[in-house]
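Batch queue: ligand-bound targets. Current item pairs a single chain with S-adenosylmethionine. No template structures supplied; prediction is de novo from sequence plus SMILES. Inputs echoed for audit trail.
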Amino acid sequence: MALRPEVGTQPQFRKRKPPATYRYDSSLSPSLEWDGKNSVRELGEWLLVCIEDAAKLPPPHEFAEPSVFRDEAGHRVAECRGLRDAVDQLKRLGRPFLNWAGKAERLSFEVPTLPLFVHERLSTMAIVETLKAHTKQARDAQLGMFELFGDPQRPITDQVLKAYEYRDEWVNRMILGDSLVVMNSLLHYEGLGGQVQMIYIDPPYGVKFGVNFQPLVRKRDVAHNDDADMTREPEMVKAYRDTWELGLHSYLTYLRDRLLLARDLLHQSGSIFVQISDDNVHTVRDLLDEVFGPENFCQIISFRKTGGQSSSLLASISDYLLMYARDKDHLKYRQLFLEKVPGQEGATNYTWIEEQNGNRRALTAEEKRHWAIPASSKIFQAYPLFSEGKSPTDAPFVWNGGTYEPAGNNHWKTTAQGLARLTALDRLIAQGETLRFINYLSDYPVTPLTNNWSDTQISGYGDKKPYVVWTLPKVIVRCVLMTTDPGDLVLDPTCGSGTTAYVAEQWGRRWITIDTSRVPLALARQRILTATFPYYALKDETRGPSSGFLYLRKQNRKGEEVGGIVPHITLGSLAHDEPAEQEVLVDRPEVTEGITRVAGPFCVEATIPTPVDWDGEGGSEHDDGADDYGSYLDRMLDVLRRAPVLQLGGGNTVTLKNIRPPAKSLELSAEAMVENGSEHPVAVVFGPENGAVSERSVYEAGREAYAKSYVHLYVIGFAIQPNARRLIEECESAVGIPATWVAATPDLMMGDLLKTMRSSQIFSVCGLPDIRFKKLPQAAGDPVQYEVTMRGLDVFDPITMTPSHIRGDDVPAWLLDTDYNGLVFHGSQVFFPRTGAWDNLKKALKATHDESVWEHLAGTVSAPFEGGLHGQIAVKVIDDRGNELIVVKSLAEAE
Ligand SMILES: C[S@@+](CC[C@H](N)C(=O)[O-])C[C@H]1O[C@@H](n2cnc3c(N)ncnc32)[C@H](O)[C@@H]1O
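Prediction returned. Tokens below.
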């Protein structure tokens, strides 16, 4: 496994890896014109030369070395192995294909290859463990009641609370960043190519460009606003967005690039599911054909979504999953089954009944209407005993006084001996002239799942739905169970509220999930952290989930199959006296009662790493792309000109005007005037494209701005290191000029594809967590204990320098690291004020944990804690827009 650095260890990563270049097969390029401006004509002519050359060779007409075709820039466009290959490629040039604006110009694209940095480590087990001082056991221990609880050395939580552990200490991963960049990092920084078993991708559906996102962590009622609505709500940050410059054309480019990288990540036996609506199912299937090859198409699944869209035509009630294999010949596939329910899919032929007294008869029309069948009777189907085609050896069969033979052009399904055995087993029934086999529903109580999922409607959503564009877990559960085994790796590059991660966690699969937006990641983090699951027994506890789950055959008192293994008794197995086959129901593993399982540890990562000191001596990072960096600065400047309104929270804004690059600047990116502000210009500095703003960058920029008599410094970036953040707050006293941190939405990094966003939503200023950090009164001899109170969030107005305030119990989440190492944030206590987020766990641990534990975790005061080795704590607040704000305090600062 490649190095995954902790954030803060950036200096080692100053030399970036070169960007990776991905190429498309030019024979699929969109123009069929042989004199077009792309290279199709030359390619065709080159293939003809290949054919001539190869034809001169002896069979099989193959070249010793593949012949290579390059474009004018020297890029490798195609290669040819010999005659057959050349003919195939030539034929492909004439095939119909999906074309869109920009496709022809995009025969290759580059993606920066960046390391992923671990920013935060979280573990539900660790959080509960931290609070063990509040367990009933601990309290009883204080009262001297130890013995009651067995081994006092062992925390009681161990006995009831578990998480799956993976070998090699694998930790699941939630990654902030653009899926293209992150997948490229997984491929080329970490060498994860070929290691992912299944990819679930639920991209924006590519409809209503410019709408449809969830702006705030706790606001779920935004569905399909239009742009006009958004201007009236300038506070919204676009956490979910379908805004694309060329509409569907941009969308197709966006999706194809991502599918290409997804394919490289998949194991040879792996598969991908793409969730899409009927608007674009056809174009996306074309894309998948192009990237995966039509031969690897597996299935299109229609699944029922919420209700019906009102329509003057047929109501639309389904969304679709397009399933492709990396290589269909090697696909890992586990058949799923549904329980047979008389009268429903897979069980419509069970129209006979065997009553308790042995009497057999057809169900009455009334019985079939409601499928009300007496409990003590058995349902069966009268199954044909012959198949098509005459057999010369067939003989009439005498049964129960009558003589039967296959009618017309048919033959017996089994031998005379087999028929005799079925007679002995009392498995035959006459229906008029025809003899039939009695096939009880219980012989095979399940039916294979088909590609029509009508049982996936989201009912009673609203409060239960964690995210506007949430996928019903059942849908993803099926995809996971069909294509992976416990311990396999599942990837979702469109995390949203983390349904795939949640489902993977539940089913003991390892997971990686990616999202560009912080709001969904904040929701996903809370969802995973506070989830509880059944404990599925493992075949081998020491080997973890990859040893597989345990499945048993079990029947309830009524004789119904309720275990994970069910019989599959067939006419053949009975007639030939062979042991019946069995089916494993992978969704019904054995559950160990009495254990609450929580999510295993996971980390939050980002591509945001290297605090680049732009220009100046640290410029070596740009060796590989100085031009790119220039264009990045130009782009940011352009964005700032078009979107000069900086959102400061609390409805406050600052509008910049006359924005221009400063003359002869070392560190600064722009200067501007503030509308209705001072008569003197302010300075602006942009943070790096793929990095966090460093303390040194702020310092240098601050010094230059001060020296040049600017009145204020705005530091605009995608991420910032805690120390740099602190310096900004103290900039006036430390450097002599006040400074303000302005967080730019990561969507800006998506480059040209995205339409310019509504200007007011591009930059927003974040504040600092306002905490109280105090020492608790200490009894002689006891260790010092501390407590943190979350008082709220201060958002600064940099013009007036007045803060506005969000109350502590009004932040969606806050986290405490009681021993912050300056690099990675370890969430030792995690709070979701005024919510029932921890309720599941609270219920599960009712017997062992005091109520007060959960009061802490739903409030604004931490549980008491001891200081750690690093002598400092960190408090992180997640604001309503998913922004993360960190404050660091040394133990010495405690009141
Ligand atoms: C339709 S939602 C997924 C919802 C998810 N299935 C669930 O159950 O919550 C799509 C998500 O993809 C994210 N997204 C869109 N473009 C992205 C990109 N280029 N990279 C990473 N995430 C992206 C959006 O922020 C959004 O959260």
